[in-house]
Design a protein that fits this description.
The chain is mainly α and 46 residues long. The chain has helices spanning 2-36, 40-45. The longest helix is centred in the middle third of the chain and has 35 residues, at 2-36.
Length: 46
């Protein structure tokens, strides 16, 4: 049971890391789109 709880904590940490990574790249994509002058229509397609 202890090993299971440890694994759950490891996975929860990994999920949080992946959420941070996703947020970073979503922000980067928005910045690139803004710099390229993409319209709102283009954002909906992507």
């Amino acid at each position: 049971m202890r090993a299971l709880n440890q694994r759950i904590k490891e996975l929860e940490k990994k999920v949080e890391e992946l959420r941070d990574y996703k947020a970073k790249w979503e922000g980067h994509i928005e910045l690139v789109r803004a710099q390229s002058g993409s319209s709102d229509r283009d954002k909906q397609i992507a």
